[in-house]
Design brief:
globular; 13 helices; mainly alpha
Length: about 300
């Protein structure tokens, strides 16, 4: 662990959170439309910024200004979802859907609760239908993680689900493409609850990741794929023994714009933040999470 790397991670997270805070209004859900007409991208972006804010609150390593921004974003997102009532309505309207619970679990992680939704989720989790959703395996792990956050027991065979993921199959590392790379990162995030439980990944997969993560980090650093690189750096600090990747952090920090936005590395962002928001809010959220988890893990190791 290098002190410079930790400082860079902190700076990246602080700058990213500052940009997200300034862009808060862009995360607002559309008004005066029924809930079934709210665009999925709007729900997703608001859920992701709430998740980032919840991670900042949980890890409690941010300075006063960043911590205040995270609290403001979390409160804003909770209000946008009607203090959970909108998610409850969505869940009742479409019981087989899992995204209302997944979104809600980000708030539960931060201590914000909607008891009727939690009771309904517990009922749905006990149905036969809950055991056979048509989801890819890492998406099923997302539901397991969401249920855990609200205190529900695992009803799925988690090791069997892990074995069905790309990561669980420990494929030839050169077969990793962008789609499966995101699958790998999210498998790790779901199993470790965003780094809270590094032992959530079994030793065999930890060894596989320690062997091949350096190669993937190098590839996505060279291609300047900042979104995916940020996720891989977050994966690193979700493992039992992080490798830290100082050169990759240096490059990621250099790729961050002065205003705090991190480009996705694929499309060129507009100089107008409002126009850049759609394609680049996600990598900026990733930067905030990866930086926060890196600093938190470094402090835990140091102590």
């Amino acid at each position: 662990m290098d002190v410079t790397t930790v400082r860079q991670a902190q700076h990246v997270a602080d700058q990213a959170m500052a940009w997200l805070g300034r862009m808060r209004a862009s995360f607002a859900l559309p008004r005066d439309v029924p809930h079934w007409e709210i665009p999925g991208n709007s729900l997703k972006a608001l859920a992701e910024v709430a998740m980032a804010a919840a991670v900042v609150r949980r890890e409690a390593v941010a300075g006063p200004e960043t911590a205040r921004t995270a609290e403001e974003l979390l409160d804003f997102a909770w209000r946008e979802y009607g203090d959970g009532e909108l998610l409850h309505t969505m869940q009742r309207h479409t019981p087989p859907a899992t995204h209302p619970l997944e979104i809600y679990s980000n708030f539960a992680m931060a201590g914000l609760h909607h008891p009727p939704l939690e009771r309904f989720a517990a009922h749905l989790a006990g149905l036969r239908a809950a055991a056979v959703p048509e989801h890819v395996p890492n998406r099923r792990l997302a539901v397991v993680a969401a249920q855990r956050r609200i205190g529900l027991p695992d009803r799925d065979d988690v090791p069997a689900l892990v074995a069905q993921t790309w990561l669980g199959g420990t494929p030839e590392p050169w077969m990793l493409d962008t789609y499966n790379a995101y699958g790998v990162t999210h498998t790790v995030f779901h199993l470790t609850d965003w780094g809270r439980n590094p032992d959530g990944i079994d030793p065999r997969l930890q060894e596989y990741l320690h062997r091949w993560l350096p190669v993937w980090v190098e590839v996505f650093t060279e291609t300047r794929s900042w979104d995916l690189l940020g996720e891989l750096l977050a994966v690193d600090v979700c493992l039992s023994e992080p490798d830290w990747y100082p050169q990759a952090w240096e490059q990621l920090a250099a790729g961050q714009r002065e205003d705090g936005m991190l480009p996705n590395g694929i499309t060129r962002p507009s100089d107008d933040p409002l126009h850049a928001f759609t394609n680049h809010n996600h990598p900026t959220i990733v930067a905030a999470v990866a930086g926060t988890l890196t600093v938190s893990r470094a402090l835990a190791v140091a102590s």
